Amino acid sequence: VKIGMSSDGIGTKIEIAERLRIYDTLGRDLIAMTADDLAANGMETVNKTNILDVDRLDPDTVDALMRGLQEAAAEANIVITGGEIAELGERIGGYGKGMHFNWCAAGIGILPEGLEAVDGRDIRAGDSVIALKSRGFRSNGFSLLRRVMEKGVGKAWHREKYDERSWGEVLLTPSLIYSPLIASLRRSGHVLKGIAHITGGGIAGNLARVLKNSGSGAELTDVHAPLPFMREVQRLGGIPETRAYRLWNMGNGMLIIAEKEAAEDIAAAAGEKGYAARICGRIRAGGGILLQSRGEDAQEIEYSPDNGA
Amino acid sequence: VKIGMSSDGIGTKIEIAERLRIYDTLGRDLIAMTADDLAANGMETVNKTNILDVDRLDPDTVDALMRGLQEAAAEANIVITGGEIAELGERIGGYGKGMHFNWCAAGIGILPEGLEAVDGRDIRAGDSVIALKSRGFRSNGFSLLRRVMEKGVGKAWHREKYDERSWGEVLLTPSLIYSPLIASLRRSGHVLKGIAHITGGGIAGNLARVLKNSGSGAELTDVHAPLPFMREVQRLGGIPETRAYRLWNMGNGMLIIAEKEAAEDIAAAAGEKGYAARICGRIRAGGGILLQSRGEDAQEIEYSPDNGA
Q1: With an 8 Å Cβ cutoff, are B3 and A5 in contact?
Q2: CA B256 – CA B259 distance, rounded (Å)
C-alpha cells in the first residue's frame, strides 16, 4: 500500500468567520486544503486529524466548527480519526470578541489498488488541460484580500452588501472539495496524467510544478472567468492582473491534464457530478506557461519555465 | 499494513523558548509528543509533517526550529516529509520581541510486520508495571507552570538561577523520546502488553485509559521520584500533590506493562539503551489505581475506576 500525507491550515480566512460569527463552513475549507493536495497526487484521503489552537475555549464555537468539519468529511468519504484542542491564551489572537483560533489538519492518503500515483511524468505535447471551476477564494490569499477590503470598503467591510449577500459572506464562501470527483473519475477508468490544485502561487505556479516531471509547458487560452466578486475585489484594490493570478485562483480551483481524446469525456463526467469543467488549453513542448487571463485587465501572460512558480 | 495517525502540538512551552531565545530544542518536544503517542499503541512513526504558524517570518528562528526538528527526527528514525509555514500576523502572539509561533505536527505510524497493536487487552492481575524516567516537564502543564513561576519567582523568572542553569533552561529541558526504545524492545521480542504515554492527565489519567480494555487496576508503589526542580516548582506554587500528579508527569514519562517474569529483562534492556527504568508496581484485579506519590507532600493517592482520568 502506498501512503501519503498532507497537512495544511486555513490561514487568515478564519478572520472572516470571526467577523460574521459563522463557524460551520470553515471545516469545508480545512478538508479541501488537505484532501485536494493529496488528490492532486492521485491519493484518496482516508483518515484525517485536526488541531485547533484556541485562546479560550468556547464550546458553542467549537461545536459549530466540528459540525461543519464532520459534514464536509462525510461528503468527502473521510473519517476524522483524531483531534486536539489546545488552549493557548495570549498566543492566539483574532477579530473582535468571541473565541479566536487557528485551525489545521493532516490527512493520510492511500493510492487505490491498481492505480498509479499521478506524477505528471506521462504528460506530452498535445494533451488537454481541463479546468474545474471554483466557487470563491478557497483558503488562499486572504491577507491581501483583507487589506483590499479594509482600504476599499472600510473597517466593517464584512457587513457591507455586495449583492444580496454581505462582503463577509461572499469571502467566506466555502471551498468546493474536488477530491471525491478525482477519486470517482479515476475509479471509473479515466486516466488523469497530471492534477494541479490551485493554491498559493495561482494557476501558473501550481501547474508549473506538475509540468516539471515532463519538461513540458502549457497554453491556457480558455480558463474559467473569475467570479464577478473576484473582479470587484481586484478593481477595489487596483491589483494588477499578474498579481491577482499569482495570489488567487481566479475561478479555477483545479486543473487536470489528460490525453486530448479523453478530455471531452472527463469534462462531461465532471459535469454530471455537478462540477463545472471546461477544456481550457493544451500542453506544448518546451517549458513555460501562456495564460490568457480574464480578470479586470485581461491579457496574455507568459510565464517562463524558470519563474512559473 | 495497519496504519495509525497522531497529531499534537507543544502548547505554551514555546513561551519558554521565546523568553530564552533558544529555538533548537523544541523539535525534540514536537517529535516526542506525537511519536510517543503512536509508540503507546505499538506503532512506529515513519512519516511526519509539521505546521508552523508564525506572526511574521524570521528565517533564523525558523532555521533553528527546523534544525532541531531534523536532528530529533533523525535520532528517532523518522522522516519529515512535509511542512507548512503559515504567516498569520496578529493571529499569533507570544513573549517579547522576536518571531512568535505555534507549532504542531502529525505523524503516520505503522505496525511492524509480525507484531500486534498494543491495546492492553491481555493485561492481567500480577503483571508488572515498568516506569521510564523523564528528564523534565516534557510538553504538558506549562500554563500552570508559567503562572507558578511568575508568581513565585517574578516576571523575569526565566533568567533567575535554579542551579547552574536558569529556571528558563530547566523548564525548557527537551523531552526524552521513548519511541525508539519501544520499537527496539518489541523488535527484539519483548512482549509489551500495555504502554501509557504520560501527558496531560498524569500517571493515573493516562494509565487508566490503558487499563480500560482489561478492566484491571494497578498499584504503583515505587514510581520514579520527581526531579528536584519539579518539587521546587510544586513548593513555589503550593500545588497540592494530587494536582501536581494530574497535570505533570512528575518524573515518569512512560509506563510499560508486561508479564512479571519478563519485567526485569525489559527494564534491563531499557537501561542498556540509556533509559532509566524501574519496576514501579503491579496490576491488580478490579479497577482503580493506587499511587504512592513522591512529591512535596508524598502520600498514597487512590484513584477510583471512574475518576482515574
Answers
A1: no
A2: 10
Query: What is the full DSSP assignment across A55-93?
Result: SS--HHHHHHHHHHHHHHHHHTT-EEEEEEEEE-GGGB-
Per-position pLDDT tens, chain A of length 309: 688 899 999 999 999 999 999 999 999 999 999 999 999 999 999 989 999 999 999 999 999 999 999 999 999 999 998 889 999 999 999 999 999 999 999 999 999 999 999 999 999 999 999 999 999 999 999 999 999 999 999 999 999 999 999 999 999 999 999 999 999 999 999 999 999 999 999 999 999 999 999 999 999 999 999 999 999 999 999 999 999 999 999 999 999 999 999 999 999 999 999 999 999 999 999 889 999 999 999 999 999 987 544
How much is the ipTM here? 0.89
Q: Which residues of A touch B87 (CB under 8 A)?
A: 143
Could you tell me where the DSSP H helices lie in B160-298? 167-172, 179-187, 202-211, 228-237, 241-247, 260-272
B301 neighbors B241 (Cβ within 8 angstroms):
yes
B110 touches B65 (CB < 8 A): no
* Calpha distance A134→A285 (Å, rounded): 28
Contacts of A210 (CB under 8 A, 6+ apart): A40, A120, A123, A194, A195, A196, A255, A257
User: Which residues, other chains included, contact A260 with Cβ-Cβ below 8 Å and sequence gap of 6+?
Assistant: A126, A127, A128, A282
Alpha-carbon span A55 to A53, nearest angstrom: 7
Q: How far is B117 from chain A (nearest CA, A)?
A: 17
Q: What is the pTM of this model?
A: 0.92
Q: From CA B49, how far away is CA B83, in angstroms rounded? A: 5
| CA-closest candidate to residue A105, choices B34, B54, B84 | B84
Among residues A75, A86, A15, the alpha carbon closest in space to that of A48 is found at A75
Q: Chain B residues with CB inside 8 Å of A1's CB? A: 1
